[in-house]
Request: fold
Amino acid sequence: MAGRKNYKDQQGTEIYDNYDRRHGEGPVPQILLDKTEGDLEAFGNETVHIEYPFDGIWALDGQIGYATWYAEQGKKAFIHGGFYEHPVKDYTVAIEMMYPGDYIEWCIELFNKHQGTFEREEIIDRRREEYDAEAIFGPERGNISYPVIETNGHQEGLHRAIWALDQGITEIPVIIIDQH
Reply:
């Protein structure tokens, strides 16, 4: 009866459930069937321990900058091999590696399109002044959530990308949500 269960990861994030099944997402991803722990089978729920990507700094399930809906979308993309297409709501999710400067440029384009006109240095300087990123992210390496870009105008992670650029990090993992 594995196909009828709701699957949650070790953090309690629903990564495949009745909603997905009802809307024709397809069979339960094999990664979930292969990793079943079976320790929370009450009410048709099953917890699975997923080894999310970890490179020493970034974690798909990291707590610094964690935003529940974005993390859920990134996790769904991960269990589907890096790309997830919602069967009803007409959006896709991908996980891509990106140069931090490119992420910053993408954010600036979104700001300029949806919030007014901003210069690159103005945005970066203002974000650096808001808080000490090194004090927040430096000690938390390995616990920093992926930055997110939503093509409809939202972002979550500009401070993290600026910090990565300042650290000389050449690639960051980014969750890209493309709303059609």
About this structure: The chain has seven helices and eight strands.
